[in-house]
Write a structure and sequence with these properties.
Strand content: 35-45%
Order of helices and strands: EEEEEEEEEEEEE
CATH architecture: Sandwich
Number of strands: 13
Shape: globular
Distance between the termini: 53 Å
Structural class: mainly beta
């Protein structure tokens, strides 16, 4: 089974139209991720500030992970032989470089991520030399921990990703 380029998936949105009827909505295109040799893909949908039937989201205007009480939905890839390549992860508001173990690719985010590998494979590294190779069909839940993605393999790794922004509880009360 082959999949389209992460930027060429078709987004279908079923929701209530302006007349209050169930309908398929026409929406803008995705926010494109273009970090040559590091990552490629698109975020197709985003919700900001809480989920409801009235606030179900829209295509994002720019690439960023989910903020508090928000979510994003996208298709991304790590290019073949991109192990060790790093990008500017600090460009994303919810993501920061951690540099754990002296690895500039180590970063963390204020999100819980649900990911499904659909083609290729990629190594997910955690601090302390912990590593798992993810393959097609593997499901990943990541809870904001420092990590690095490494693809030393000869095939791009394409995966579906949903990010959920942390709801930072306020102290007191």
């Amino acid at each position: 089974m082959s999949f389209p380029d992460p930027k060429e998936f078709r987004l279908v949105v079923a929701a209530t139209n302006d007349s209050g009827e169930s309908d398929f909505l026409e929406v803008d295109g995705p926010a494109i991720i273009d970090m040559p040799g590091v990552a490629d893909g698109a975020f197709y949908w985003a919700v900001e500030g809480g989920h409801s039937k009235e606030n179900f989201g829209r295509p994002p205007a720019r690439v960023e992970l989910a903020g508090p009480n928000g979510s994003t939905f996208g298709v991304n890839s790590f290019p073949a032989r991109s192990a060790g390549n790093t990008g500017d992860v600090d460009q994303f508001e919810s993501m920061t470089s951690t540099g754990h173990d002296g690895d500039p690719a180590m970063h963390a985010s204020d999100t819980i991520d649900y990911e499904v590998v659909i083609s290729g494979k990629v190594d997910l590294e955690l601090p302390g030399g912990k590593k798992r190779t993810l393959r097609p069909g593997d499901l990943l839940v990541m809870a904001g921990v420092p990590h690095a993605w490494k693809n030393p393999y000869d095939e791009d790794c394409v995966y579906i990703v949903v990010t959920i922004g942390f709801n930072h509880a306020q102290s007191g009360a």
